[in-house]
Task: structure prediction
Amino acid sequence: MRSMLAIANIVLPVFALIIAGYVLRRRNVLSTNACTELNRFVVYLALPALMIDVMVNSTWSELYQPEFFYAFELGVFIIFFAVLAFHWLKTKNLTSATIDATSASYANTGYIGLPLCALTFGADKLGPAMVAAILTVSANFAVSIVFIEASSQSGKSVWTTLKNVGVSLCKNPLIAAPVIAGAFCATGLQLPHGVLQSIKLLGGAASPCALVATGLFLAQRQESSSSAVAIELVILKLIAQPLIAWYFAFHVFNMPPLWAKSAVILSALPTGTGPFMLAELYGKGGGIASRTIFLTTVLGILTLSVWLTIL
Result:
């Protein structure tokens, strides 16, 4: 069991930077454009650089942990498909139900998970967080897009829908970066020292910038939405999902302690911005998505502290 001081030293720095971004936006020190521009920097430069840095300094045996994949993804998809089925039957709107299901299961692995795991386990033990981030922005995001596209692109073939999804994912720098790094490492070649230093400098900016960007996003006006639905999604995200991951990580699959603990911590993260991006893109469920992100981020201080204490 960790002491409360140790837990505070892990959790508070993460949320202090989120609060800093929130306050700076609320006081209009940073403009409405700051969130967009900082997000672009994080997505297109900082996070890809951090992923490349982790990849080139890890071996395939360290990153290949199928049990972690199963434990983490089972937590995601059990919640996702349960909410999807229930809300689809209730609203008869597949797009809205998909946004709700994504809000209840889409962990903020990139913006909060990576810095939190760095503080918890050490900056040299980010393998699980990186794998989870890749799964979240590729597999999990892709599944949500497939369901929404299936609903919104009536008349289009399944092949066209899948092709559109595939092109979108290939253009995502958070997917392209680790794929390129993996292909490069497979050749056995070494990156020049100057390039590695540039990547490391950019990667070092990922965590603080991502956390401040999260605060800027949360400071934006939240759309009106159903409080009951938001509370339901918050409970599923912060309590049910990590419990499912904990059961599989510690009672079903056999994996190294770092990966088992990481599966639970990463599953217990607040909802990421992915659902809101989908809601904005398709014009459905933005209020629920933004409120769920806000509430899970605020309440996540408490629930993450509990999980860190238990583990």
The chain has a mean pLDDT of 82. Residues 61 and 266 are 21 Å apart (CA to CA). Residues 4-310 form a domain with the Na+/H+ antiporter like fold fold (CATH 1.20.1530.20). The chain has one domain: 4-310.
